[in-house]
Hints:
- 2 copies of one chain form a homodimer.
- Chain A is mainly α.
- Chain A is about 60% helix and about 10% strand.
- Chain A has 6 helices and 3 strands; from the N terminus they run ααβααββαα.
- Chain A has helices at about 10-25, 30-40, 45-50, 60-70, 90-95, 100-120, and strands at about 45, 75-80, 85-90.
- In chain A, a hairpin with a 5-residue loop joins strand 2 (about 75-80) and strand 3.
- The interface of A and B includes residues 36, 104, 107, 110 and 111 of A.
Amino acid sequence: MRKDHKQLSDHCQQCITGVMDAQDVLSGKWKIQIISVLYYEGKQRFMDLTRRFEGIAPKVLSKELKDLELNHLVTRTVLETTPVMVEYDLTPEGKSLNAPLEALGAWGISYRKSIMKKNTD
Amino acid sequence: MRKDHKQLSDHCQQCITGVMDAQDVLSGKWKIQIISVLYYEGKQRFMDLTRRFEGIAPKVLSKELKDLELNHLVTRTVLETTPVMVEYDLTPEGKSLNAPLEALGAWGISYRKSIMKKNTD
DNA sequence: CGGTATCCAATGTGATACTG
DNA sequence: CAGTATCACATTGGATACCG
């Protein structure tokens, strides 16, 4: 008799939802790079990031940062200088992303190796 | 004197690339769910998946599966029955995704809790 | 059963110019 | 400096019908 497979266990479902939440807040071409730079180098200004990701359109960078801010992963601080400067930094939630991202990054590195090996066979 | 910040260390860069590789092969609305179902329930036929993800268009499911197959995360096996049946299953690389996905899922779960708490404050 | 073909709307990304 | 406004273009996801 065939096992009934209509539904995954609650734990699995929760985990899948968690992954998709993460995928969601990390969607977009630049968010992971932004988070990484903030993590490894600390707070950055808008222009710092513009220069770092050479070629990124300001509109796009602006949107990525707004998304991250809305999702409570980065903070935006206006410094009352002239002209004004704005600093972006990670929240605790943003910093806590480092551990799972390292895990995923390690997978990606070994995945890439295994694919390259396939292609030389 | 300010620290020179032009470049992240090689290890960081590699890790970021790894994360982005992963993000790349997991892009799309259904890939993570497909991988999860295959992981927790074993091989599935096209129609199984169509039913599981109620409402998914066959064109879309077909594309997701093709992407996964091209990236060596799933296998596609044609059974010579009449009419033909096709089974999809995870490759070892696909299975190896489970560990980092669990890590990311755990983050997502605690992230969701922390956001919900913020909203009730 | 396991797809493809066609058409469509929404979204994402980018180039460029401009503003307070 | 830190963005916004506008236009253009590619990609994504979906509805529906059809095919071998």
